[in-house]
Recover the amino acids of this structure.
């Protein structure tokens, strides 16, 4: 008779049930799959560009689980593929964006990964770093002004964004007015080729919170449940009028910035390989299987399903039409685009 | 990291000689006299505009005493009359600026109080708050880059300016590069009509230093000796390669923002009178008299001399001509001003 | 002009017209928020919003920190979420830090989201010289922004236009830069119809009729141009003065109809000449009415130097007087 295995330790699941844990895992897998798909399509010459987010799966899926659909507002940045999926953007919408189809939310105008969905409460953003933060603050002001209790704004950005003047101005205003907003920094240690040590004088973004007069917290960005808890706590505070919070999730960017970047020119393979040991996707899978939330077969089946979905979304999106040339002139203003009135 | 409040340790500390103490006091008196002269001239209809600095005399005289003339660089803002006098500008140069004469450093182009003097190490600045701070950081970078040991940049601003994005960007860069840069905030509690509590959520600006990864502390800006000690400490650190500091001197703005402002629209006379009790000029006079560093006759003689100097400067400047119309076209570029090349 | 609900009017100056219009907008629509530096307790440095904070409350009249980029940016966020913010930049000279939020964000929100998000934002700012404002309180900025698709720019010169155009700007579903010439604030008075009315953007107005020369101008200089034209009338010269009122969109019909009559065009603006608004007008008229012209198009504008200086001779040299305008007008009529 073989020795009984020791009972697995209790999973620190906070208030998440099994279904939610699996949903988090699914979001992470979908993010990884769709990101890979973007790179694949780029290598095949089918799309000109894709952005990377490997390493961010835990923080984004965890944060998305804390987000209340139909109530909260998300003002993301361009690396938030998982967060967008987690709040309801579909793989099909993601592929439409990659292929720049007319049916895309921006009618093919925006760079990929610049999702917007009024219905889901996801703001339209640009590629200009930190420019979305004052918008997020304005949205939070609007919620508070209208007395809409139970709603909050979640806005995200990378470590590089924290150097921007508009980052500073946004946190300051949100603090003065005690706005219902959570500032989530996805600190992946790299801003394209700029390492943390060249970006800021001390490496802990959350320690700036005190200077603004708001609470700040750091969390392990590779642990989706911890991220869920940290972001959830901050959003809960915001929703009841407790004001803003700065949450810093420490993660890592495994790939280059985008398909147009080659990170071999500025960091070593050894560093990346070392950090890969904490890749949140296989790590969380291992955790769920060990704790009996998922079986190994279940995990494989999930991944297969996600892949099928990705294939389906790819095929459907690819078959759609580009916007027509005449579409260039639409929606400059509510009325005609002409600057000269006749 | 020094994050303590300094307390003055008595006049014997900090190595200031009796003559230096008298010089500090004289600077304070001169600042107040020239300030008043500007307002007088405005009331007489001789100059269109004046901007006061009452309340800042101790802070500026103390800081100037810690500045190494001919070596350090000053990046002030428009309320730094005393600081500019203290680093070597003359009443005559001040009056040239007030009267906008051709002989003025800026050729009569700039608003009054926007001093500039390459010779004194006083960087040219605009009315745009915080716009001078990236310049100051760049100057500090140049010092470090050239290996100019023993030199540092002293930059100043008010409490309002610390809300600007460029304040943040400047502090961050100075910290990353460990630059010979001192950020001296003259917190007088008002930004035109905006009180501190509408400007920021926690009122101690020095506390932001930790977030940038530099030392920060606060001192009593009504005490010129405490000021001197604080500024000297920070400047010495910067000059010896120890990197930047954020130091905050608390004071108060007794007058309105400028001759175009009416502060009774947003604060009460009682509030201002209450703070007048701390007026640093009579306070320091009392201290010096008590310690026997000056006698009442000395003070009277000082005041008389300052008045004479002021009158001479006023008369001399007033008698000079304005710039000529054709002066408008000079110094647009090094070469010709015309944008169309023929 | 749209239907006016009353036949009464009130004599007021431009700053009073801004104030009165903002007041009504605040009263009629609680989506309207005013934000900017010193707009609350101080009531704005020209007293435009004096006592507004008492009546409408702190939540609707926001004294912001000193942070121009976020004054506009936060207003953009409010607009995206359905409020009607009116952001104030204290002086146009301070607008540069918010350049990205205006040009890169506000102007493009509708376009980049394919209409899902819109930006019904008004940015008000006093501009212009003649007040000894030197380098940072005198500048003209319209040329930097009128180039940008997605933005609208309005420059009223008279109090009745101030009200009608500001109402339109506030109602407009797209971002509008509302430029107020600070020297006209107290200098220019006129009858302003009572009640609510709007003036459509993109419509110029002939402020003085004439047959021998078309003068197009905006801002303070409309008034000097009218004065100059009136002087010339006494000499028997007939000059038409068109107040543009709206820079983007701009009124092509009014300009071309006038030019086809007078056959001569002079554009007068306070901003620097090179690349100013006059350049676009000149190009348009040359493209569409070249053979209707009997003289080269001319532009009377500021010299291409960075700023008017604080010293009076420098300011005078930079700015154009009614006398200088009359001289140029006379030359052109006699050409």
């Amino acid at each position: 008779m073989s020795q009984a295995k020791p009972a697995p330790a209790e999973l620190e699941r906070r208030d998440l049930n099994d279904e939610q844990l699996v949903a988090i895992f699914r979001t992470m897998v979908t993010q990884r799959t769709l990101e890979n798909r973007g790179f694949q399509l780029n290598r095949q010459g089918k799309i000109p560009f894709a952005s990377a987010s490997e390493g961010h799966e835990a923080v984004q899926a965890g944060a998305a689980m804390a987000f209340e659909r139909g109530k909260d507002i998300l003002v993301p940045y361009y690396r938030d593929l998982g967060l967008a999926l987690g709040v309801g953007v579909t793989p099909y919408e993601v592929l439409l964006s990659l292929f720049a189809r007319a049916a895309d939310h921006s009618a093919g105008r925006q760079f990929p990964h610049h999702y917007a969905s009024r219905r889901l409460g996801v703001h339209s953003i640009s590629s200009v770093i930190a420019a979305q933060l004052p918008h997020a603050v304005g949205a939070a002001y609007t919620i508070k002004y209208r007395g809409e209790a139970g709603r909050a704004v979640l806005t995200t950005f990378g470590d590089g964004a924290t150097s921007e003047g508009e980052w500073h101005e946004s946190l300051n205003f949100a603090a003065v007015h005690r706005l219902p907003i959570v500032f989530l920094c996805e600190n992946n240690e790299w801003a394209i080729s700029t390492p943390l040590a060249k970006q800021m004088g001390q490496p802990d973004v959350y320690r700036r919170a005190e200077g603004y007069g708001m609470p700040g917290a750091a969390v392990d960005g590779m642990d989706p449940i911890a991220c869920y808890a940290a972001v959830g706590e901050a959003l809960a505070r915001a929703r009841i009028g407790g004001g803003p919070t700065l949450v810093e999730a420490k993660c890592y960017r495994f790939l280059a910035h985008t398909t147009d970047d080659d990170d071999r020119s500025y960091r070593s393979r050894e560093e990346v390989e070392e950090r890969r040991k904490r890749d949140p996707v296989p790590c969380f899978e291992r955790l769920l299987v060990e704790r009996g939330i998922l079986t190994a077969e279940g995990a494989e089946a999930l991944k297969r399903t996600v892949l099928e979905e990705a294939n389906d979304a790819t095929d459907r999106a690819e078959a759609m039409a580009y916007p027509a040339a005449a579409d260039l002139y639409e929606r400059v203003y509510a009325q005609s685009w002409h600057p000269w009135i006749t | 990291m020094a994050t303590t409040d300094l307390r003055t340790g008595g006049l014997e500390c900090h190595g200031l000689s009796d003559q230096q103490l008298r010089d500090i006091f004289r600077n304070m008196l001169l600042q107040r006299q020239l300030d008043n002269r500007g307002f007088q001239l405005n009331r007489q209809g001789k100059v269109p505009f004046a901007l006061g600095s009452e309340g800042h005399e101790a802070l500026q005289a103390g800081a100037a005493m810690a500045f190494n003339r001919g070596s350090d660089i000053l990046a002030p803002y428009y309320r730094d009359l005393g600081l500019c006098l203290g680093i070597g500008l003359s009443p005559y140069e001040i009056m040239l600026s007030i009267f906008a004469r051709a002989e003025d450093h800026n050729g009569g182009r700039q608003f009054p109080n926007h001093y500039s003097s390459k010779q004194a190490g006083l960087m040219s600045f605009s009315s745009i708050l915080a716009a001078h701070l990236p310049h100051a950081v760049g100057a500090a970078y140049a010092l470090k880059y050239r290996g100019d040991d023993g030199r540092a940049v002293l930059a100043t601003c008010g409490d309002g300016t610390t809300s600007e994005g460029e304040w943040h960007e400047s502090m961050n860069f100075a910290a990353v590069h460990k630059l010979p840069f001192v950020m001296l905030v003259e917190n007088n509690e008002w930004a035109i009509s905006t009180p501190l509590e509408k400007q920021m959520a926690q009122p101690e600006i020095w506390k932001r230093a930790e977030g940038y990864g530099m030392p920060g502390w606060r001192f009593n800006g009504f005490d010129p000796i405490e000021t001197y000690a604080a500024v000297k400490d920070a400047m010495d650190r910067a000059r010896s390669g120890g990197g930047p500091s954020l130091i905050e001197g608390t004071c108060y703005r007794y007058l309105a923002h400028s001759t175009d402002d009416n502060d009774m629209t947003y604060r009460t006379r009682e509030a201002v009178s209450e703070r007048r009790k701390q007026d640093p000029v009579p306070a320091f006079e009392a201290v010096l008299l008590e310690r026997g560093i000056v006698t009442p006759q000395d003070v009277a003689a000082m005041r008389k001399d300052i008045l004479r100097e002021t009158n001479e400067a006023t008369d001399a400047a007033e008698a000079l001509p304005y710039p000529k119309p054709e002066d408008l076209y000079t110094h647009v570029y090094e070469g010709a001003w015309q944008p169309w090349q023929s | 002009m749209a239907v006016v609900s009353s036949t009464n009017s009130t004599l007021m100056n431009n700053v009073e017209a801004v104030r009165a219009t903002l007041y009504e907008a605040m009263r009629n629509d609680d989506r309207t928020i005013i934000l900017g530096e010193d707009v609350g307790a101080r009531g704005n440095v020209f007293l435009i919003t004096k006592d507004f904070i008492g009546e409408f409350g702190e939540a609707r009249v926001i004294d912001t920190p000193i942070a121009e980029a976020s004054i506009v940016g936060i207003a953009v966020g409010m607009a995206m979420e359905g409020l009607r913010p009116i952001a104030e930049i204290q002086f146009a000279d301070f607008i540069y830090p918010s350049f990205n939020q205006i040009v890169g964000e506000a102007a493009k929100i509708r376009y980049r989201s394919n209409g899902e998000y819109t930006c019904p934002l008004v940015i008000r700012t006093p501009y212009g010289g003649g007040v000894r404002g030197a380098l940072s309180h005198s500048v003209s900025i319209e040329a930097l922004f009128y180039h940008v698709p997605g933005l609208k720019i309005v420059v009223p010169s008279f109090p009745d236009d101030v009200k009608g155009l500001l109402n339109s700007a506030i109602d407009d579903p797209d971002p509008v830069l509302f430029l107020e010439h600070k020297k006209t604030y107290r200098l220019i008075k006129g009858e302003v119809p009572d009640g609510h009315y709007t003036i459509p953007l993109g419509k110029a107005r002939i402020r003085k009729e004439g047959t021998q020369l078309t003068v197009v101008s905006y801002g303070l200089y409309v008034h000097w141009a009218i004065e100059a034209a009136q002087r010339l009338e006494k000499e028997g010269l007939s000059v038409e003065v068109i107040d543009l009122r709206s820079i983007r969109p701009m009124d092509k019909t009014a300009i071309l109809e006038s030019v086809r009559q007078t056959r001569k065009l002079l554009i007068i603006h306070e901003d620097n000449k090179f690349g100013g608004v006059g350049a676009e007008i000149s190009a348009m008229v040359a493209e569409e009415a070249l053979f209707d012209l009997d003289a080269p198009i001319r532009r009377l504008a500021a010299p291409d130097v960075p700023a008017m200086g604080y010293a009076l001779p420098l300011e005078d040299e930079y700015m154009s007087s009614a006398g200088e305008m009359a001289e140029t007008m006379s030359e052109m009529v006699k050409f």
